[in-house]
Amino acid sequence: MAETETILLDCACMTERKAAHEYLAARLSFPAWYGRNLDALYDLLTERGPCVLRLEHAEVLEEQGGYGKRLLDTLLDAGRDSGNLTVVRVEAPTAQE
Fold this sequence. Notes:
The chain has 97 residues and is α/β, with parallel strands linked by helices.
Protein backbone atom coordinates (compact mmCIF):
# COMPACT_ATOMS: atom_id res chain seq x y z
CA MET A 1 0.00 0.00 0.00
CA ALA A 2 1.35 3.43 -0.97
CA GLU A 3 2.18 5.88 1.78
CA THR A 4 0.01 9.00 1.91
CA GLU A 5 1.96 12.16 1.15
CA THR A 6 0.94 15.42 2.86
CA ILE A 7 1.70 18.72 1.11
CA LEU A 8 1.10 22.18 2.54
CA LEU A 9 0.05 24.76 -0.05
CA ASP A 10 0.12 28.45 0.87
CA CYS A 11 -2.72 29.94 -1.17
CA ALA A 12 -1.29 33.42 -0.56
CA CYS A 13 1.43 32.39 -3.05
CA MET A 14 -1.19 31.71 -5.72
CA THR A 15 -2.82 35.10 -6.32
CA GLU A 16 -1.45 35.58 -9.85
CA ARG A 17 -2.29 33.02 -12.54
CA LYS A 18 1.24 32.37 -13.86
CA ALA A 19 2.82 32.42 -10.37
CA ALA A 20 0.11 30.07 -9.07
CA HIS A 21 0.82 27.43 -11.69
CA GLU A 22 4.60 27.74 -11.23
CA TYR A 23 4.15 27.37 -7.46
CA LEU A 24 1.84 24.36 -7.85
CA ALA A 25 4.15 22.70 -10.39
CA ALA A 26 7.09 23.03 -7.98
CA ARG A 27 5.25 22.06 -4.77
CA LEU A 28 3.46 19.10 -6.36
CA SER A 29 6.41 17.90 -8.48
CA PHE A 30 4.41 18.08 -11.70
CA PRO A 31 6.08 16.93 -14.93
CA ALA A 32 7.58 19.50 -17.30
CA TRP A 33 4.69 18.97 -19.71
CA TYR A 34 2.12 20.26 -17.15
CA GLY A 35 -0.18 22.57 -19.13
CA ARG A 36 -0.40 25.26 -16.42
CA ASN A 37 -4.17 25.65 -16.64
CA LEU A 38 -7.09 24.53 -14.48
CA ASP A 39 -8.01 21.52 -16.63
CA ALA A 40 -4.45 20.20 -16.52
CA LEU A 41 -4.27 20.86 -12.77
CA TYR A 42 -7.47 18.91 -12.17
CA ASP A 43 -6.28 16.01 -14.33
CA LEU A 44 -2.92 15.69 -12.56
CA LEU A 45 -4.47 16.00 -9.11
CA THR A 46 -7.09 13.34 -9.72
CA GLU A 47 -4.46 10.96 -11.14
CA ARG A 48 -2.11 11.26 -8.11
CA GLY A 49 -1.39 8.51 -5.66
CA PRO A 50 -2.56 8.90 -2.07
CA CYS A 51 -2.10 12.53 -1.06
CA VAL A 52 -3.41 15.14 1.37
CA LEU A 53 -3.27 18.77 0.29
CA ARG A 54 -3.46 21.18 3.20
CA LEU A 55 -4.57 24.61 1.98
CA GLU A 56 -3.34 27.48 4.13
CA HIS A 57 -4.76 31.01 3.53
CA ALA A 58 -7.51 29.64 1.22
CA GLU A 59 -9.59 32.69 2.08
CA VAL A 60 -7.17 34.81 0.01
CA LEU A 61 -8.26 33.02 -3.16
CA GLU A 62 -11.91 33.13 -2.14
CA GLU A 63 -11.81 36.87 -1.49
CA GLN A 64 -9.90 37.49 -4.71
CA GLY A 65 -12.74 36.09 -6.80
CA GLY A 66 -12.23 35.50 -10.52
CA TYR A 67 -9.35 33.18 -11.34
CA GLY A 68 -8.38 32.78 -7.68
CA LYS A 69 -11.82 31.46 -6.79
CA ARG A 70 -11.84 29.13 -9.81
CA LEU A 71 -8.40 27.84 -8.78
CA LEU A 72 -9.63 27.14 -5.24
CA ASP A 73 -12.75 25.44 -6.62
CA THR A 74 -10.57 23.25 -8.88
CA LEU A 75 -8.46 22.13 -5.91
CA LEU A 76 -11.56 21.35 -3.84
CA ASP A 77 -13.32 19.62 -6.76
CA ALA A 78 -10.30 17.38 -7.37
CA GLY A 79 -10.34 16.40 -3.71
CA ARG A 80 -14.04 15.62 -3.86
CA ASP A 81 -13.80 13.63 -7.10
CA SER A 82 -10.61 11.65 -6.47
CA GLY A 83 -10.43 8.56 -4.31
CA ASN A 84 -6.74 9.19 -3.58
CA LEU A 85 -6.73 12.92 -2.88
CA THR A 86 -7.93 14.71 0.24
CA VAL A 87 -8.00 18.50 0.27
CA VAL A 88 -8.41 20.30 3.59
CA ARG A 89 -8.47 23.97 4.46
CA VAL A 90 -6.34 24.78 7.48
CA GLU A 91 -6.06 27.85 9.61
CA ALA A 92 -2.61 29.42 9.60
CA PRO A 93 -0.99 29.45 13.03
CA THR A 94 -1.10 32.85 14.67
CA ALA A 95 1.86 34.44 16.41
CA GLN A 96 1.66 34.67 20.16
CA GLU A 97 1.90 38.22 21.43
